[in-house]
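Lecture 7 notes: from sequence to structure.
We start with the chain below.
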Amino acid sequence: MPEDETERERSRPRLALPLPSNVIALQSTDRREKLRIVEALLFAAAEPLDEQALARHFMEGEDIKALLDELQSLYAGRGVNLVRVAGKWAFRTAEDLSFLLEKQAVEQRRLSRAALETLAIIAYHQPVTRAEIEEIRGVSTSKGTIDVLLETDWIKLRGRRRAPGRPVTYGTTEAFLSHFGFDSIGDLPGLNELKGAGLLDSNLPPGFSMPNPDDAADLRDDEEPLDDEPLGDGDEEGGDGPA
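Predicted structure tokens for the same chain:
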């Protein structure tokens, strides 16, 4: 090839060749540093963090959700996974490896059947009063059962019903979502899931339907704020006994 043609060939711009399928393009240094920051913040946090808390460590406009999704993907399949619970993010031991930590786990007190039924009713029907819980269960509910659920921080006092006696209304908490691994109250099992798990009779009465759980913090139209008056529906003794 003539010398002048060789020079023209060398100076001609070259097109970038696509990477082979088995080669992953390296992230930019800036991107990797951002992922490291999110990773460090979540590891150091004593409790799950929401996207707003993470965003305070970045420039305005940073796509925190994209960083979290990428970090979650990087940790998928590892011994520790990045999960979202109650609208916040945290590192948790992979579910299939949880048996390895059983010896280190703190033994937890088992809830009674009455407490579990009461908790389920509050979760699905909130805001709900003690009298409404008893109507759904078909039996009275003791103060001890309610107290145990309050002590676990799985339920809370929401407000008072605009009704005679102004009974207290109950709802679930963020700790409830975190303990059971739900991102939102809408993740509670539906009718078909409960049937499949054997928790509901397959021969349900015609027209039976599940409520749509809603744990919105705002009081409903039939609720009013709590005040310093004695509790209206949780002070009586008796019922189904301690939880």
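Points to note: The chain has a mean pLDDT of 80. DSSP finds nine helices and six strands in the chain.
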